[in-house]
Request: fold
Amino acid sequence: MATTPLAFLLDVTRCIDCRACMVACSAENNVPMDDTRIWVSGSGVLGAFPHLQRATMPYHCMHCLEPACASACPVGAWTKRDDGPVVYDSARCIGCRYCMNACPFGVPHFDWNRGVLEQPLISKCSMCAHRLDLGEQPACVQTCLTDALRFGPRDEILAEAKRRIAARPDKYIPHVYGETENGGTSYLILSNVPFEDLGLPLVPQEPVNSASEKIMRGTIPFALGWAATLSAVAVGVRLRTRGRDQTGEGGAPSGTDPDPAELPMKDGSS
Amino acid sequence: MDERRVPPSRRDFLKLGGTSLGALAVGALLPAPVAQAARLHGQVNARGDGVVHTLCEMCVWRCGVLARVRDGRVVKLDGNPDHPHSRGKLCARGQSGLMTTYDRDRVLQPLIRVGPRGGGVFRKASWEEALDLTAQKMIEIRDRFGPQAMVFSSTHNLSQTQFENLLGAYGSPNYGTQRSLCFNSMVTAFQLTYGIEEPARNYDEVEYILLVGRNLAEAISTSETGALIQALDRGAKLVYLDPRFTKTAAKASEWIPIRPGTDSAFVLAMIQVIVSEHIGDCDFARQYIVGCDDLPGAMASYTPEWAETKTGVPAETIRRIAREFAAAKRHALAHPGWRTANFVNSFQTERALATLNAVVGNVFEENGCLSALDPEASGVTLGKPPQPPYPRVSAQRLDGVPWKYPLVPLKLGVFQELRDAILSGQPYPAHGWFISRQNPVLSLPDRRRTLEALGRLDFMVNVDVIVNDTAWFADVILPEASYLERYDPLAVVEGKVFLRQPVIEPQGEARSALWIYRELGQRLGLGDYFQYADEEDYLRQQLAPLGVHLEDLKQSGFVEPRPTHPRPDRLVFGTPSGKIEVYSETLAKAGFSPWPSWEEPPAPPAGQFYLLTGKVGQHTQFATQNNAYLNKYQDEPRLWMNRTVATDRGLQDGDWVTVTSPVGSVRTQLLATEAIRPDCVYLPPGFGHLSKALRTAYGVGASDSDLHVSFVDPISGGQALSQTFVSIERG
Amino acid sequence: MIAPLRWSQLARQRPSPIVLVLGALVVTGVVVGLIRFASGIGAISNLSNSTSWGLWISLDLLCGVALGAGAFTMAAIVYILDLKEFRPILRPAILTGFLGYLMVITALLVDLGRPERIWHMLIYQNGHSVLLEVGLCVMLYTTVLALEFLPVLFERTTWQKPLRILHSITLPLVIAGVVLSTLHQSSLGSLYLIMPGTLHPLWYSPLLPVYFFLTAVAVGLAMVIFESWASARAFHRGLEIHLLGKLARAIPFVLGLYLVIRGTDLAASGELSLLVPRDVPAALFWLEVIVGVAVPIVLLSRRSVRESPKGLLVGALFVIAGLILNRFNVGLLAQSPVGGQGYLPSLGEFAISFGIISAGVLAFAFVATYFPLFEAESHGGARSSAPLPSAPPGQ
Reply:
């Protein structure tokens, strides 16, 4: 297994929405018929006849450098491998779907129509990790008729993307989507239409898991500190009450329960 | 739905007795049911894992395939990097191929009809019974009515040569292919003009491309589609003529939503500009074009201003494009097209395209965008089994070739005319129809007539992998093994010889066409025409002149033998004059215009629309709608209508509408879109299946075969698929 | 030996209409739940890949946990601050909390894709995950609540030893309970820290855990008030007005602190312009703040309101309504998921939620009827059960 982080490059101008990538993915990964791990996302037909435009791209997992799913999953079912893919351990998953909520790209999806005995699971693109292990490219990349999808070490892919933008500034939006989004992803996209027209969300550079990671780091210290504080308060309050008792400041003696018959009842009730 | 066969248990295996002990030698590992051949040659190991080289059959592009097998089951198909058509890639249909092999609706045993024709009730039969019955019926027909009373049709299978062999040996002249529904106009035009059926295209150095239709992004030919996009990425310009904003239009530098039926006006005007302004390649023209001097005169009336009145495209646009095209010279390419059966005048469009390429001199041996050599002409000659000459055929062909249509090549025929002749019984009745790998019930126009014609037959036999719509009406269905389960005759592509071999053993009792034709041939007393013992023997005979061993071919999947005849070293055209016959004496003699010329197409009456057809990238015509993977990723088939027009008529996206043509009507849902001319509607092809045996495809969408009117171009025999006009009503 | 519960009398009693309705809701919920387990969540819900957390998470989990906050709040008041006068209303608060958390866990068992694997959180642990913390804390705290509630059950028996053991660990249990509650009440807010892109900026903040905690404390107190009022009505008991009034007095301080922090946070983030009520999120925000913060602060600051049962009830209801609005906003209404189509909970989802809530109400009523819920705890001895009310509950 290579340890160079690998990445996809998608050039939207080359995608013709033929869907070979989708069939290849379904076949390669034995994806059930009612599910898909890659789908066409697109602008639809933009404009009015006859001044029309249309762009499409295959949408799948971004394999983020700081994957929100891996951070969010309580049982650690998602792992980011050194060579790039974010892979799934189906033996751990409890189907809580927090990863689905955490993912800023809306990628993972769930087997909604399986009962408990049918073992529903989350699924998403795995970058064909099993093919990477054999030194092959992901199935979608290999079969892409127009070479819209390319694959390789991330730094090379990023350099290629920038080179293309520089060579044709009239053609491409001057931004490589995925370079910085969510702290950087392994699915880098070049486009001639605005990325949001393709269905790609606006995702800031700061990885989405930053705030929750900070919180989690502070949990144990906070819990210990709070427990200590509460204990101190409880002890302190009791000492003060005992002190007050000893100085005879009245009130019910501590340590005994008030007689239920003495409890004020029926105050103002109907 | 899991079709996996459970390997026999050890106990069962020993019970069988007499089986090869070699297979048991591996100890506890049991042989998985993969193709015996693949296993013996080490492509697949004893556990049933491995990779087998073969060829796709999901469309006629026939990409090379590396089929991955695990536990005796085909699990993945990848493109063969060494095949010129795949270059390591497979389109959606190619990738889905294993779901055709494992389709739950595969017919795996011979079937014989029970009950009325079209009732869809069959009983399973043995091969003996089914073949005996077929042969008996065919012999009866031959003895009573003559061999011409038996019609044979098949489309472009790799086993086509043996199909034609059966037809020829039997002695019938009636050979139906579906080509007149597809590219008759292109082939006939280029045959007459260049002397080849279809010039090869080269995108390596192209700078300016004119596509007239030829929606390469959806009518996918894997390598060519990739090459086009590569060229565009490199900076080539694409001018694309189509009444619809297709996926190719989305990649074009310029999309021209031209009025249907007027492509020839556009191209003729381009020629007029180029020759009148002398901006073509005059040297090339003088050397190679017949009628070069008179061409300007012949084109004089086809000005851009005139073309504007026909096409709706501004004259200045046409003029500019002509100049740009000419400026690119040998780096310009006007694509010959493929399915060009759009209008009766499509033949003239093709003639004009052939001329347009010629006047800029891009037709070349090397370094041109168009090749004067047929891409199928590879310089490799394969062997074949010996056979006696065919019996003489005296009867006329039912499809009017050549007695009614003198210029239509015999290999192409006029399929819609054939169907009409069966229906009418003129010039003589047909009594039987043998159909292999073809679905005329969906491909022929005017489905009602096709079904009526089937009713005229005494006997109908189909060879297919599923009970498609035509097989639904058959008397006998002979199950062909799917392409992943069979041998076929060799395929030669760009000088390389490719093998199709079984990746797994055929399921059920399905057999290869080579076997079926031979078995049938023998029962018909035509055994001398089928002198091969089995498929491998046939292949060895094919390979004999090349000095290549079949075993080596199985391992590698292909060989590249030295060409048996060298390529010519100068440009020679296969026409009578040896030159590009822009002026065609052959056409003149047959009473047609010798020049590419304008023929006014019909237009829809007020309130009606042109009914367009086309291709979708996820299907192959009518053959693949039952494939589960393709069904998963297809767009829901709906009738496209221009959004503004729809709104004006009070129609909304998703409404149910009835589409009515002069010959039939269908009901379907509407897609209101900007992506189509206001005077057009489009129905995606391939849906509206009748066969209930296609459980995935049945009931989905509507078929344009119910709507299409039959036409015949008298020159090329081509159908005119866009010349049907329809009215649309809500409901 | 368990004192006879007079099951025969129970069986002969004609259930009141309310009990019948609640019972029917429970049965409906069970049936729908069985379909969910047999055929999958998709069979009975409108959840989808773009909205994978819906009614059950917003209502049963987020609201459910917050509404059970009275347990730890009251336990802290009674045991940590040693304010024993509040003892009489401690036990019902504990029961409310305990049943509330059981309801939460039930809803989670329906919502989880693989409920049979809920124990995975004990052996597979991703320390980066807020949800892990929520899960473990909820598991542990429910155990704490069970232990805190057990005395109520045991006092109906003559077993003394268990009671003594339980009483001896009360204070550590309470401290553990407060710590666990602080952690998971705030962490339910932290769950949403990982969604800066999809949660509307009027709600998204690094201080979400603080907001969730403060509102939980406030609604915990409000729930004690509400539950006391409801029990007084249902079981013909007196209302401990002066105790509840003191609790109510704390609410404006808690909500006030919350308001100040949240307002400062919005100002500091430059998001005040979003407050202009020109779109749906702004409207939702104002609704939530007015109903859940402003009105309660105004109402419950007034002594006259705090001294009337009706005033207490109304004030408490506003706090509860505001909390529910807030949790729904954060969990659902202020979310814009990628590829999101609209989501409306299905009848099946409502059936499950209402079934669970009904079961909780019925359980509370059952315990209140047949167990010494409203008595201060005893230290042992076969204390006779509280006299049964003369009429069956609810009539």
Residues 250-270 of chain A have pLDDT under 50 and may be disordered. Chain A touches chain C through 75 residues (CB under 8 Å). Chain A has two domains: 6-208, 209-247. The radius of gyration of chain A is 29 Å.
